[in-house]
Design brief:
This protein is of the alpha/beta class. It has 9 helices and 9 strands. The chain has a 6-stranded mixed sheet with strand order 2-3-1-4-5-6, sandwiched between helices. Strand 5, helix 4 and strand 6 form a beta-alpha-beta unit. Helix 6 runs antiparallel to helix 8. It is globular. The mean pLDDT is 92. It binds guanosine-5'-triphosphate and magnesium ion.
């Protein structure tokens, strides 16, 4: 039996559901998600494996022109660079409508690359009028570009996601698997732990969250658990970096209520990820203007 292996970039504007899709295919949370734009700040891979087929999905930051900071420029660059070394691209938009920014991102995809258009959040199409608009959008897209396929999906419900896998399989080159059967990402547990803390910040701070907020893992020690044999215990110390003293107060919350909740929820997710126990220590630090400082952006791990 021939084995196929494809490396697939997931690109689109912020918030269209790229990371939710990746997690749906992988069956585990390897990329964090939230309602906020540019939740994803790194190239994160998620691996889908079944007999005869492996798909290495590459999640990317949402491309946007809203902020002209070093951080934003770096995120756009990460996304565009991810397109240079893949077999095909998934261009993700919302099924409810196309924006000029979606079109601009499509134009950034090298013309040699096969593209599958993924119309996400199709669960939001409810009325007959919505459905007519969706059909019209399908026609418009088909006239715009020679897509390998056009697939409406709902990442949140998991509906039709399998069809995308099937379309990728048709385009996948023959090749050996790059990851072992039980591997779900190329990222370390240390990295994913930092991401899970950042996800709680993004989710629990809602619109108060300053764009310039990041997380640095200062210490990450793993050892066999004393209390539950066969499992590991992780001892983690992390810093939440904000740009202003006033933002520090927001993250900490009244009498430390918010930082406690961030810690509790992140610890539970990290424990699930490592299937063990976790001690998590969180600090909040102020570093003004870091998102505008290319060296600081790199130092904080936004590579
Ligand atoms: N209704 C609905 N909401 C969805 C669906 N998929 C994702 N979402 C929501 O859309 C929001 C953004 O999802 P993400 O997966 O973080 O989006 P993203 O494209 O990775 O965003 P960035 O990383 O910021 O570029 C979250 O609140 C998701 O819960 C879907 O199929 N239907
Ligand atoms: Mg994302």
């Amino acid at each position: 039996m021939t084995h196929r292996c494809a490396v697939v970039a997931i690109v689109g504007r912020p918030n269209v559901g790229k990371s939710t899709l990746l997690n749906q295919w992988v069956g585990q949370k390897v990329s964090i998600t939230s309602r906020k734009a540019q939740t994803t700040r790194h190239r994160v891979t998620g691996v889908f494996t079944r007999p005869g087929l492996q798909i290495v999905f590459v999640d990317t930051p949402g491309i946007q022109q809203r902020h002209n900071t070093a951080l934003n420029r770096q995120l756009n660059k990460t996304a565009v660079q991810s397109l240079s070394d893949v077999d095909l691209a998934l261009w993700v938009i919302e099924a409810t409508g196309l924006t000029p920014q979606d079109e601009a991102i499509l134009a950034m995809i090298p013309s040699s690359l096969p593209v599958i258009a993924v119309l996400n959040k199709s669960d939001r199409i409810r009325s007959g009028r919505d459905r007519e608009a969706a059909f019209a959008l399908g026609d418009r897209l088909a006239a715009m570009h020679r897509f390998s396929a056009l697939v409406p999906v709902s990442a949140e419900r998991g509906s039709q996601c399998e069809i995308v896998v099937h379309e990728i399989e048709k385009l996948a080159p023959e090749g050996e698997p790059r990851f072992a059967e039980d591997e779900v990402s190329d990222r370390s547990v240390r990295f994913l732990a930092g991401e899970l803390i950042r996800e709680k910040l993004f989710r629990l701070l809602g619109d108060e969250l300053p764009y310039e907020t990041t997380v640095v893992i200062d210490r990450f020690d793993e050892q066999p658990s004393q209390r539950s044999p066969g499992h590991i215990h992780a001892d983690i110390s992390a810093s939440i970096i904000v740009a202003k003293a006033s933002q520090k107060a927001v993250v900490i919350g009244e009498h430390g209520s918010r930082i406690r909740r961030i810690g509790t929820e992140a610890r539970a997710d990290i424990a699930r990820l490592i299937d063990g126990t976790v001690r998590l220590e969180l600090w909040v630090k102020v570093k003004s203007g870091w998102a505008d400082d290319a060296a600081a952006v790199r130092a904080f791990g936004v590579e």
